[in-house]
């Protein structure tokens, strides 16, 4: 692994010190162990990412079970998960590297499984929202510790392929959520969306328990004041952006959330510059390729999440597809995303990941532009939607995997989870802004008017092409850091 910049050490015992760029000192992982680590990490990642989108399709069924709850109240079922997940990702990654990735992974997966059970048996909206927030806490711990486990147990020569598989699973989960959710809701009702996590979670726990335990890296836990400021700051900004369209961008609540979140983030940054165990590891951002991949992740996340929701809304509102049919209509894109991720993971040299980011983001951006130019009120699924959706999926899988690979290549092994947490945070924050932009655009049009959705696709094209334009900076900066 190439270490892009010198990394500062937290104050701690000298015996804990180990050169940042070196591999952890343990025997090479056996192939079976590496496969097991990849399997359990991919399964957990699938569940965590799936639950960001799978619930969207269940709103009609939820309203049937809770007729006294308004649509605004029901949106908290999604918002509670999204906001908490985004707020805690960076913090969880830091904790995983300090306490041990396996330990955090086991506790987070167990909590996610329990929270899924509570969601599935919820007797009212408040209980469901609370359980979803608990799921968000658990998912934030699962993602960075999962990739950390993969990279820890996988030989260096196989890491890029492993990240490709991991990226493929994450890409598929985001895209297949609507179709899987539609199928589950149509056959068994909304509770099945959560209860299906139980057997999968238990299998993941059993597999993860067999992995060798990693040791804590000897650093101190991050500054608690800075950590709280970071979590509440990110949460405030994401929540404010998420609720901006519904509450009004000029409303006191939204302005208070955005301003308060900005103040807390500033405080977290300032505290981190002086503390020996900072909540935000500034030296990671001094790694120039890491900073560049985070910029691409932010831009691409905004475009991708807006596209995934906008596509479903278009099929449902403009073409009149049922929720289940709309979900199935976007499924081919989910599988092509997996193909794109696998191709990048297996075939693209580490030094060419910047090119895969550029190509993937360009394919996705051009697909969104084609939707704007070719889609209309006439249903043309086989002739127009299907080929465009497949190309868009290829772009999503390729770009996401290349971004993860490029970021991983810039990190020392001991800080995989911390870096992954920060990378996923930028993607989630970008996604929240993308969804807010979608809502702001659609609010100007009638729900059945195709023009609003087409403008959303234009915005997605702009965001994705901006990510592609940032990709060469990853290459140039990586060369400087070599």
The CATH H-level homologous superfamily of the largest domain: MFS general substrate transporter like domains
Gross morphology is: globular
Instruction: Give the domain tally.
Output: 2
Are there runs of 5+ residues with pLDDT below 50, and where?
1-28, 477-482
Radius of gyration: 21 Å
Characterise the protein shown here.
This protein has 2 domains: 29-212 and 279-481, MFS general substrate transporter like domains (Growth Hormone, Chain: A, Up-down Bundle); 223-278. 77% of the residues lie in helices and 0% in strands. It is built from 19 helices and no strands. The protein has helices spanning 31-53, 59-65, 71-74, 76-99, 101-120, 125-153, 159-188, 191-195, 197-208, 224-247, 252-274, 282-286, 288-317, 323-329, 331-347, 353-374, 381-409, 416-442, 450-481. It is globular and about 55 Å long.
Question: What does this entry show, briefly?
Answer:
It is built from 19 helices and no strands.
Spell out the key features of this protein.
482 residues; Growth Hormone, Chain: A; 77% helix; 0% strand; globular
Helices, strands, pairings?
Blueprint lengths: L30 H23 L5 H7 L5 H4 L1 H24 L1 H20 L4 H29 L5 H30 L2 H5 L1 H12 L15 H24 L4 H23 L7 H5 L1 H30 L5 H7 L1 H17 L5 H22 L6 H29 L6 H27 L7 H32 L1
Helix pairs in contact: 1-6, 1-7, 1-9, 4-5, 4-6, 4-10, 4-18, 5-6, 5-9, 6-18, 7-14, 7-15, 7-17, 10-11, 10-18, 13-14, 13-16, 13-17, 13-18, 13-19, 15-17, 16-17, 16-19, 18-19
């Amino acid at each position: 692994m190439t270490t892009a910049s010198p990394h500062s050490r937290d104050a701690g015992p000298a015996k804990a010190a180990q050169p940042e760029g070196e591999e952890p000192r343990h025997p090479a992982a056996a192939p079976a162990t590496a496969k097991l680590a990849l399997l359990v990490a991919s399964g957990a990642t699938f569940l965590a990412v799936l639950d960001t989108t799978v619930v969207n399709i269940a709103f009609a069924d939820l309203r049937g079970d809770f007729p006294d709850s308004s649509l605004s109240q029901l949106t908290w079922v999604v918002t509670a998960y999204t906001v908490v997940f985004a707020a805690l990702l960076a913090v969880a990654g830091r904790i995983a590297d300090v306490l041990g990735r396996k330990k955090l992974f086991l506790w987070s997966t167990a909590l996610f499984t329990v929270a899924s059970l509570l969601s599935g048996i919820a007797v009212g909206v408040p209980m469901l929202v609370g359980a979803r927030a608990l799921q968000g806490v658990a998912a934030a711990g699962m993602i960075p510790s999962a990739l950390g486990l993969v990279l820890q147990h996988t030989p260096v020569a196989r890491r890029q392929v492993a990240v490709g598989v991991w990226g493929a699973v994450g890409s598929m989960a985001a895209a297949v959520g609507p179709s899987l959710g539609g199928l589950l809701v149509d056959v068994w009702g909304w509770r099945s969306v959560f209860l299906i996590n139980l057997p999968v979670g238990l299998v993941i726990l059993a597999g993860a328990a067999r992995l060798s335990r990693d040791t804590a890296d000897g650093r101190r836990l991050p500054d608690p004041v800075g950590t709280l400021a970071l979590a509440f700051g990110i949460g405030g900004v994401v929540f404010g952006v998420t609720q901006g369209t519904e509450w009004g961008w000029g409303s006191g609540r939204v302005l208070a959330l955005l301003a308060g979140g900005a103040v807390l983030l500033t405080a977290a940054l300032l505290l981190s510059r002086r503390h020996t165990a900072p909540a935000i590891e500034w030296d990671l951002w001094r790694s120039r390729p890491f900073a560049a991949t985070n910029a691409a992740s932010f831009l691409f996340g905004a475009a991708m999440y807006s596209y995934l929701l906008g596509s479903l809304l278009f099929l449902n509102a403009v073409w009149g597809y049922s929720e289940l049919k709309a979900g199935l209509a976007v499924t081919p894109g989910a599988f092509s995303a997996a193909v794109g991720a696998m191709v990048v993971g297996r075939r693209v040299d580490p030094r060419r990941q910047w090119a895969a980011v550029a190509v993937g983001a360009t394919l996705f951006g051009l697909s969104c532009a084609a939707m704007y130019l070719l889609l209309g009120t006439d249903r043309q699924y086989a002739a127009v939607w299907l080929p465009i959706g497949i190309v868009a999926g290829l772009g999503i899988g390729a770009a996401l995997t290349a971004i993860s690979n490029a970021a991983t290549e810039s990190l020392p092994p001991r800080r995989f989870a911390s870096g992954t947490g920060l990378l996923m945070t930028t993607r989630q924050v970008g996604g929240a802004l993308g969804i807010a932009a979608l809502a702001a655009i659609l609010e100007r049009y009638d729900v059945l008017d195709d023009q609003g959705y087409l403008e959303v696709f234009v915005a997605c094209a702009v965001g994705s092409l901006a990510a592609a334009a940032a990709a060469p900076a990853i290459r140039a900066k990586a060369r400087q850091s070599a």
